[in-house]
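User: Before I run my own analysis I want an independent prediction to cross-check against. Here's the chain; please return only the structure tokens and, at the end, one sentence I can use as a sanity check.
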Amino acid sequence: MYQLNLHKVQTILQQADLLKEIIVDHTWYFSLPLDYKEQQFTTLSYDSRTVDSETLFFCKGAGFKESFLTQAIEQGLTTYIAQSPFDVDAIGFIVTDIRKAMALLAQEFYQHPQKKLIKIGITGTKGKTTAAYFLKDALAKATHHKVALFSSEETCLDGTTYTRSHLTTPEALELYAQMAIAVEHKVTHLVMEVSSQAYKTKRVYGLNFEVGIFLNIGTDHISPIEHPTFDDYLYCKRQLIQNSQQMILNQDMDYFDLLADTATLHHVPYVTFGRTNEAMIQIQDHKDTRNFDLQANELDMARLEDEYQLGILGTFNHDNAVAALLAMQLLGFHPEIAHQTLKETVIPGRMHVIEQHDQPLVLVDFAHNYLSIKTIGELAHQLRPDGRVLILTGSTGGKALGRREDIAKALSEVADEAILTSDDPDFEDPFVIATEIKEQVTSDIPITIEVDREKAITMILEHATKADVVAICGKGTEQSMKINGRGEPYEGDIVLASRWFND
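Assistant: Structure tokens:
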């Protein structure tokens, strides 16, 4: 169904000023010899194990080896795209930026599915998935389930069927392939989490969103293989602004002035929400953390004024819900549509509550950075002010190294006791990771290290009293643990915590 010929490849790369040279029969050109222009491709790939003679192959990644290309040629590959030439018997398109080339050629190959969808992009350090589910459910009600979802938890391409996601934002080839499938299913809207890495690695290069949402910003994903500095992290995230037709901004977040200036400079209109009088939509929280009121400080926002109720706990989720409500307004739908869906929305791995009489209250959440762990700790103190807050957490291996200090900071501020355990340690020793966190906690709280996560969950639940809140942070609904490069089976935090109550 989808195809691309060499002449079109050449044209797109030249028009984008990406093409350095073309190698045919070991001779360098800037334009293809006529005999080759009509050669067709029916697949795009960067995996040398999946190619054939009709595959256009991309040599991408810092770990790419010439042996991968040689293997692909042995399987029939005739054409590759790379940033450096290889001395092989295949046509080579040598480009200045392989990732930009991937994005532009994927758009063309899949017949520009992005132009056939109304796209809402959501970024922020925390809350992206929750806001995405709030908006997805409201749009599903408004469009009779003609809405796709690309989130860190799940992917939905037909409006009804959900599969586990592997990346928050897929690589460009997968991204446009998924959009094409959504278009084939006559989906009209796409709700999409946009990670900082999506801009860092140009997965969303050239993609423009009808609505962009910027929820908040804090330190996360700082490491040699992700973002070397917070400045780089924030710079990548704020690229969503210049690639959106209109923006929704949290007036209360750090660096708001910078983000608002960015929108103004790029002539992107924006609306704001928050708890300050300056926000166009002002949030008024209730004691019941599921309820909130909205007050409009701008006349054209007046129809958002109302009382709303969520199906999940946490005043921090009010921000995510209001962002979804504002998106519905900007898309032309009445907020009334979201009234029922906000009460019913459940987010996998987020704010799962286990509560039984005469037992500690348990919160299971995907929280894995400073903002999210601090927020869940504050909620725990609010829910049971006379009890202790016990937090179980850990940090990933091989990436987001700055997260360890941030977790320690959050524990110092909100925990009465903590257990540090494994959370996808990969090739690192989970005991060393936990020790690094423990050494940076500045408050005088009891801290235990137990790297067996199942034992750690049992330990923290047995140590809690009925007056306490136990927050189990990090894995949520995930049922695998990344160890030494492989996803090893893991029953899941919710399963293990629920079993303890039932044993």
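Sanity check: The radius of gyration is 24 Å.
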